Each structure stands twice: as structure tokens, then as C-alpha cells.
Task: structure prediction
Amino acid sequence: MERKVAFWLVLVVGAVAVWESWESFRPLVVRDSDVRAVSQLVRASYEPGTLIEVTPDWASPLFRRELGEFMPADHLGRADSKPFARITEIAFGKNRTLEFLGFPSDALVEERRIGPWFLRRYRQTPVLVTFDLTEHLLDATVSQTAEGLSESEWPCVWSGPLPSVVPKPGPLGGFVCEQTRVERRTMEIDYKPRRGMVVELKTKQRTRVRFSIPDAAWRGSTLHLWLGLHDFHQRKQARGPARVLVDLDDGQQTREFQVDPTQGFELQTIPLPTTSSEVHHLRMEFFAEHPPHHFVGVHGELRR
Amino acid sequence: MTDGKPRSARGLDVVFALVLFLATTAMLQFSSRRQGFARDEGYYFHAAEQHAAYYEELFGRVMRGELRALVDRKLVDRFFSYNQEHPPLAKTLFGLSWRFLHRCNCPQEPGLHALSYTKRHATLGLLKNGEAMRLPSHALAGALVAAIYALGRRLYGRTGAFVAAGLAILAPRHFFHAELACFDAPVTAMLGLTTWAYVRAQQTLSWRYALLTGLLFGLSLSTKLNAFFLPPLLFFHALWLRKDLLRTTNSSESPFFRRLLRWVFQPWALAMATVGPLVYLLSWPHLWFDTARRFSAYVSFHLHHVHYNIEYLGQNHNRPPYPWHYVPVMTLLTMPVLTLLLAKLGAVLWGLVPQKVELPPPDGERRAGAFPLLLASAVYPMLIIMRPGTPIFGAEKHWLPSVPFLALLSGAAVAYVVSALFSSPAARRSFAVAFSCLVLLPSALSVFRSHPYGLSHYNALAGGPVGAATLGMNRQFWGYSVRGAMPFLNTLPPRTPVYFHDANGFQLQMSQLDGFLRRDLPDSGMEEPGVRSSIAALVLHEKHFNKYEYWMWDAYGTTKPSFVLTHLGVPLCTVYERPKPERGMQ
Result:
């Protein structure tokens, strides 16, 4: 009996030993040659404006090393993929980009396998972005008011270099308020890149960002607003939510949103009032009960 | 015959233990030469040089007859004020090893040492600075492996003991930590050694081993605070083991109170309660003055330790409550699978048929209740970290003291199989060699495969590092993988300001001292101003560090890295270079 038990134990242990040895001897490896082969295929058929998405996230640096010029920060930090007509997905094994799983079946125009990688090309009818708030941040008016004193307003002026294709060494430009800043940057919200504006909050102050939007962009569009808190370290220390008040056409419509430290980059859609005017106004006001460590990340688009 | 074994057999075991000690030490010393310096090592290097300087100055003054130096508070505070949140033993050993063994060129290395040196040290000149600093860790791991062999040999024989000794060090994460001049592997070794001495004290009932237990416990306390958790485990084990002391016997009808005292104050416990704290105090001059305040500051630091970040199953955790399953899942995915399987088998077999696993004690010795002790020692460090409020940022290093005991349980399974399968000694010997090699092979291969990125190691159950990255498991911490990017950084133009991210100044200094990184690459500074003023920048991939990469994209106007360091194809460290503006480009 004892020998029988020992015999079976040897078999089981031996089988596990052989399996684990083999797995250690020939482990799953992501080969550079496969990455280069996939990249060559993508490069060969690349059309400007194509969104390239790599999944899972950890593989992104490998493909940016090869295809970085086609993967700008505003693509990687997009709020969603709806404005893109052409999308290329590079996926490792069974991994899929969640957002693309919701595409209709005819959106997938090509699927190829190269080693462990799947290359999928999608086409879709893109939404029209008529006005991009982040893009127009430099045209905005930024100011601060003291809580309860909304009529007295202090301007926040742009300081530092203007955004450029190849920035020079030095600080990031931004609107500088008394002690806080409003900047355009690639934010980190929910550990993902998000292109948008960061509004740093201050005790007993409200920060206002005003946009003037031409009627051609306004009419027939819906405001898509994504909100979240930027920077994990600040989120960890932030107490309570931040608040964002959105005022459309000087009180025609107002909405208030709460931005919780635990939330991701959450979308709010707001229909625009149909006021007749050449220029429309969108004002956002940022504040919090406990402002320290609240860096509100926001990106907005008028979409049709 | 002594202890029931021929003297030659005992001698052979001593030789085997010595060989295991030397082989482990040498293996770690040579393999660690490819191992990048870790962030915390940087701090300990800095402290270690100061500890060595203290003992050098103290020795010099005492030799000159200045005995007051022994109680000179200014001297102590000058050299022990830095990094007082950790006890000194390991740092002192690192420092002394460095002091005697490094190839000294110190006067020509201004700014790279903790202290300034006007003349060269008289040393043996055998090792580079980092190699000398790390040697004590390697030797302690070697001592642990030898102790495991010795313990296993007594409990279940040579084959199981060899396997246990091998599996203890051939666990990729333990191997990684044992290469470093840090405290986690040393305290694992010290706790293992203390437990070995305790078992010997129980087996022999001798004061010699009891005193050794007290001494080793003191040294453990002086290595890392984990040691404070050991006494309750040993105490409850001893109370259970020696309940016979409470019973009356025909020969001695001592009063109950006396029996109770003998039961509670067993020799080893007395030694741990007296010799332990004394050794602890003596080894840490910082506590010689203002003792209560300084000790409470040390304890308070750890009670209120910052909760750093760790990625687990795709989530970044940096505040309690932590998932209770973090510890078992990480153990399941980072330890060699076969070691875990054997440990489980060993525990079951030892529990069910102890007489088939454990050898009878030699003449003059008694059983030490080894099985429950080993089982509890394997599980106890994990249970401490499984408390939802306990920080988990150190991953497996915080329950590393479990590993030797898991290995000892594994050895028991091997010992059982070998003894049960063959009755003929010759067949048994041949099978024992072959079977031992078979069970050690996967662990050895996984150590080989994981090196020098042990913190990125995940076993076959996780699908290796690639599978673990997809599962959203932490790939590294301590910034040690920057060493792999240094060959690339060394190709940058002279005086290129580099943002080094999580790699701290001290670890970079040691890399420069030992010739891995050029000295003319200045550190551009910390956080976003450092990124924005740099010409090259690196990011070490941990989930919470993503924002640093986004800073680089904005500062450089590109998302295209120049270099990606990978382990089995999984990115660990990515380096960006600021593009040069083309003519007419703004």
C-alpha cells in the first residue's frame, strides 16, 4: 500500500516537474521579430488619421517604439474612438479592446494573425466633432472667484511656453491663477492616458473656464463632457468629491456634476439649448468642499 | 557512536552543510553581479559606509586607550542617525564587508560615497563596491541553506534535506532578494537560523542551544522588525510541546507553581528574553542613548508606515483594506509550482504518517514537535500579512520567511517517497539522486530564467511574466531594472541630463562607482520639473507610474520611445529622448 502511494506520488510529482521545467525552459516570450512583423504590416497600409490601439496596455511601448509617429498622445489619450473612421487593433492572443467589442460585425474589415498577435482593422462612420474644448483651451477665459462672491473675479493669465510640436526643455505653459493652475496635458485618470484640461482646486475659490463657441459648431450638437480626477497620488489623498457646474448660454441651461476620487473618466452628455445667437457661451465652474488634492480632469467635445 | 550516528556520518553532514553554505554564497555572489542595484539598497549602502566608519573610528580610539569613545554619544549620532528606521545588523555587515573587501579608489570618487575620503582604505581589494556590500546577504542565505540541510537531515534524512536546502534558495523571488544588500533575505535567514537553534534546544534540552537561540534571536531583531513576531510562535509551540513539564511524575513531586514556572520559563525562552534584547541593544548604538524615545520612534515609524502602491489583478492598491487573498494568490503565482505541491504533500504525509516521515531521534535527544512547528512557521508569516490593514506593497518579500519552511515540508515529501519506494539501499540511493535532480530542476530553471529580473517572475500557473502582465500583476518595484537600460544610457551624448524616475541617487551612485553608468550623465531632478528639463527620460513600468510616461509624452512631444527594456518580451523600463526640432518646426 505504502509503495503504491509512493509510486503514484512519484508519477504526479514527476509529471508536474516535467511540465514546469518545460514551461521554464521554453516560456511564453513576446518576440521582437513578431512585433516588427506586425508593425511593418501596419506601416505598409497606414492612412493618416488611423487610430492604432494596442491591447493589453503593457504591450503598448513595444509598438510605439516601432510606430510611435502614428500614435500621438491625443490618439492614445482619446476619450473614445467614435471620431475615428479607421481603427487598427493590435491584440496579443485573446485580448480584445473592450470598446471595439461593441462594434457591429461589419465594422471589422480585416483580421490577420502574426505569431501570437492579431491585427484587426475596423471601419466606422465617425461622429463629427464640431468643437473641441481641450483644443481651444488657449482661446478660453480662465478666472477665479471667491466662494460667495461670484461678482468679483480675478483673471488667470497664460504663463510659460505655448504648446508646440517639439516642446523645448522648461515648464509646461498654463493659465496661472493666484495659487493654482489650469493646464492642457495628457492626464492620468484611472491609470490611463486622457487628453484634456486639468483644473487644480483651491480652498474657498471657484475656478471658471469660459468658451465662446460659434453657432455653426453649436447648432445641432450635443455636449459630451468627460470628468475624472487626475493623478493617482492626489486621488489617494483627496477627500470627498469635486463639483463641476456647467452653464450654457448664460443660464439657459445649467447642470452640476460630482467628480468622485474613485471614478474613472466618466461621460456626461448634455443637449445644447437652441438659443439663436452668432456666438454661444459655455462656462464651467470647478469647486469642492475639501479642495486640496483635487485636480479635476475634463475633456469636452461638441458632437454631431 | 555519538547521537546515535557514527562520527564519520556526522562529519559528512557537516561537510555537506559547509559545501551548501559555500556553494550558495558563491552562486549568489556571482549571479548578483548582473543584478541591478535596488532603490532601498541605495539607502543601505549609504548607511553601511557610515556604520563601517563608526567601528573604524571607535576601534582606533579604543586602541589608543580612549575608552570613553565607547560611550561617546556624538560619535554614535554622527554615524547612526541616518536610516534609523531600520535596525543596524545587516547594514553594519554590509559596511564591514565593504570596508575590508572593496577595491578602493575612494579619494578619486568624490561625491559617490557617504563620506569623503582623503586617502585610500587599506583593504583586501577583492571585490567591487557593490559586490562587497552584498556579500553578507549571500553568506546569510548560505547559512540558511546549510541550517535547512542540518535540520532536514536530523528530521528525515539526507535526501529530503538536500532537496529542502535546494528548494529554499531556488525560489526565484527569494533568490532575487538574497542577492541584494537589503534586509528581507537576511531576516529570512536569521529567523530560519533562530528556529533551527530552537529546534536543537528542544531536541537536546541543552543550555548551549538555548543560549544560541537567544543570541540568534537578538541578531534577528537587529536585522529587521519581522523578528518581533517570532517569540509568540515559538512560545506557544514550546508550551504545547512541553506540556509534560506540568505533569507530576513518581520521581519528582514538585509543587504545581514550580512546574508551571519550568513550563513557562524554558531555557530557550529565558535566553530569548534576556540574551536577545541584550544583543539587540548592543548591536544598535543608536539605542544606547535616549533609548525609550528612540525605540518608540522606530516602532512608530513602522506602525504608521506609508502605504505604497502595488498592482494586483489589474488594480492599484495603496490603502487598506487590502484583499485577503493577495498573499495566497501571490504565493501561488510566484513560488515554483512543484515546491508548493511538495510542501502540501509533505504536510499531509507528515500529518498522517509521521512515523514514515520523521526519523527517530538519536540517543540522548527527544522529538521537538517539528511538524507543527514547520507548518506554523510556513503559514504564520503569511497570516500576518493577510490582515487587511497590513501594507502589501512589499509583495512576497514581507512573507519571505515562509519559504525555508515550505522547502522543509517539501523535503519531507521527498524523504517519504524515497524511503517508501525502495527497500534496497543501493536502489534507494540511485533513485534518491535521480528524483532529487528531477524535483530541483524546475526551480533551478525558473531561477535561471528569471534572472536578473526576479521581481518580474511569475510561475507557469500565471503564464510566466507575459501571462502575469496580462493578468495585471505588479512587474517590479525598487527601480532595479534601470540597470538593464544603462548600456543604452551610456550611448547618450556627454552631459545629457537624464530623468531617472524611480531610481534614486544612491543606487545610481553605486552604479557609477562600479562602472555600470557613466558619471557625466547628470540627474535632471525629480518629478515633473525633472522630466521637463531632461533630454532623456526613463519610466519604470508600474501601474501607478503611468503618469510619469504621460509627462514625458507632453514634455517631448512624442510617444515614441528610443529604447524599451524587456524581460521575456514584457516591457520593464522605457527610455525616451527629446526629439531635435527640425528647421522651421515650432
About this structure: The first helix of chain A runs from residue 2 to 25. The helical segments of chain A are 2-25, 32-44, 60-67, 73-76, 98-101, 215-218, 232-237. The radius of gyration of chain A is 25 Å.
